[in-house]
Design a protein that fits this description.
Elements lengths: L1 H18 L8 H5 L15 H4 L3 H13 L4 E13 L9 E12 L4 E12 L10 E6 L18
Antiparallel strand pairs: 1-2, 2-3, 3-4
């Protein structure tokens, strides 16, 4: 038992010694070859029409998988940009858009026009190498991710 205590004390001393080392500055290679540049956004974000093709498939998938609904988006109209980079140039470039969506479901018994708010962000897609789309369909935000009434999906 005494040996275990000695080994533990020695390990603790070694850990404290390494933890007490000051952080080193950037090396010559890092400073001279731009390895610490950061993300380097260029602000090249496609227009609002680009994001529309992803939303219907993902919406139908979410409704069917999580809510047991057959709701789907059949059409879009009146697409427009709300804002581009509303919080300045230092943050992830995003284009905020809105459109009217024609949603159909047996729950409604008919087709209904509602708003959809979405944003297209630079480097927010698959593996951070493409554009990503986040969206909210007003009246269909069942888990209240962007509550109230998709307000949190807007800039």
């Amino acid at each position: 038992m005494h040996k275990i205590k000695q080994l533990f004390a020695a390990a603790l001393l070694v850990g404290v010694a390494f933890a007490a080392q000051p952080a080193s500055a950037a090396s010559w290679l890092e400073m001279n070859f731009g390895l610490l540049r950061g993300p380097g956004y260029d602000g090249n974000v496609p227009g609002c029409d680009w994001g529309l093709y992803k939303i219907p498939r993902r919406f139908a998938q979410k409704e069917g998988r999580f809510w047991g609904s057959d709701a789907r988006i059949d059409d879009f109209a009146e697409t427009r940009e709300i804002a581009f980079r509303p919080w300045g140039d230092k943050l992830i470039p995003r284009r905020y858009c809105e459109a009217k969506a024609l949603v159909s479901s047996t729950e409604f018994g008919k087709q209904v026009w509602t708003k959809v708010y979405y944003s297209i962000g630079e480097d927010t897609g698959f593996a951070g190498i493409t554009w990503g789309v986040t969206w909210c369909v007003v009246g269909m935000d069942r888990n209240l991710s962007y509550a109230p009434n998709c307000k949190q999906a807007k800039p």
